[in-house]
Amino acid sequence: MFNLTRTIISRQSSRMLSTFETLKVSTPKAFVAHVELNRPDRLNALNYTLWHEIGQCFDELNASEDVRSIVLTGAGKHFTAGIDLMDMLQVGQKLAGVTDVSRKAKIMEELIVHHQNSISSLERCVKPVIAATHSAVVGAGVDIVSTADIRYCTKDCWFSIKEVDIGMAADVGTLQRFPKAIGSQSLVRELCFTGRKFKSDEALRWGFVTRVFDTKEELVEASLKLAEEIASKSPVAVQGTKKNLVYSLDHTNQEGLDHIMEINRMNLQSEDFVNAVMAGQSKGEAAVFSKL
Ligand SMILES: CC/C=C\C=C\CC(=O)SCCNC(=O)CCNC(=O)[C@H](O)C(C)(C)COP(=O)(O)OP(=O)(O)OC[C@H]1O[C@@H](n2cnc3c(N)ncnc32)[C@H](O)[C@@H]1OP(=O)(O)O
């Protein structure tokens, strides 16, 4: 009963996205959301508010029947400079006031789980997320874009799994998701152990990004065009596809097949299936899918 009430409330409120302090959210095309990291004066470094708002924003976009695909960009000079190091100094001060190691560890556990959940919201969101990055994508930035479904970037874009240079192991998803996007364990380990910058040309060669653009304007335009195309498809089909692709990343083939069977034994009875097939046969008439 509680869950049902919560679901109904979230559906009702899905039309009104929150306004955020560190994110700019717009709907430039039908069913397409554009989320912009918006702390340009701090190079979009992730302070606690930005971590928190990313999670809240993608959970809201997931619930919204008006959103079918999402483009993620960064405002200003860089996509992001990673975690806000000033914010981390404040965490250090908080820890200094606590003497017991287990109690210090509990504070850190809550922080790490909060930040992990923030980034995982891009994966929990069943609407495809296109990360469109420019200039620096550092540390937590790689965690974020590794969680996106599709990555485009500008020619001047570079990435660094920088955590090793600040004395920590990446802990909000890069070590889990980046290797699955790249394939070569040797390359992954080289980049994670050294933090060395890799540029757009290398990222393209390895398949980490799939398109590179001369300017940010071209990048955003192409990303929105792709998002618009995805949004024109059946939301039942696209969201079922994302759920199964995410699930299949860490399950056996048979488990993945069982999972998609569970999804499709329902979805093949949906009006979207009939509408799409009819539109396909009418040659030229695009199918129109109702809100999901
Ligand atoms: C629980 C833990 C979860 C997640 C952990 C994630 C770990 C990480 O994200 S590791 C990565 C941390 N980030 C960095 O180490 C990046 C440091 N910054 C840089 O290397 C450079 O600033 C740059 C991103 C390459 C950009 O260079 P440039 O364009 O030349 O700008 P700057 O002049 O260097 O910087 C301008 C201004 O921004 C401040 N700043 C830069 N990065 C951060 C940051 N990460 N946090 C806070 N502030 C940052 C920099 O100090 C300058 O400040 P001024 O006040 O203007 O001097």
From TrEMBL:
Pathway(s): Lipid metabolism; fatty acid beta-oxidation
Source domain of life: Eukaryota
Compartment list: Peroxisome
Similarity-based family: Belongs to the enoyl-CoA hydratase/isomerase family.
GO biological process: fatty acid metabolic process
Protein name: Delta(3,5)-Delta(2,4)-dienoyl-CoA isomerase, mitochondrial
GO cellular component: mitochondrion; peroxisome
Record function comment: Isomerization of 3-trans,5-cis-dienoyl-CoA to 2-trans,4-trans-dienoyl-CoA.
Keywords: Acetylation, Fatty acid metabolism, Isomerase, Lipid metabolism, Peroxisome
Catalysed reactions, as listed in the record: (3E,5Z,8Z,11Z,14Z)-eicosapentaenoyl-CoA = (2E,4E,8Z,11Z,14Z)-eicosapentaenoyl-CoA; (3E,5Z)-octadienoyl-CoA = (2E,4E)-octadienoyl-CoA
Entry's Gene Ontology molecular function annotations: delta(3,5)-delta(2,4)-dienoyl-CoA isomerase activity
Gene3D superfamilies (UniProt xref): 2-enoyl-CoA Hydratase, Chain A, domain 1 (3.90.226.10), Lyase 2-enoyl-coa Hydratase, Chain A, domain 2 (1.10.12.10)
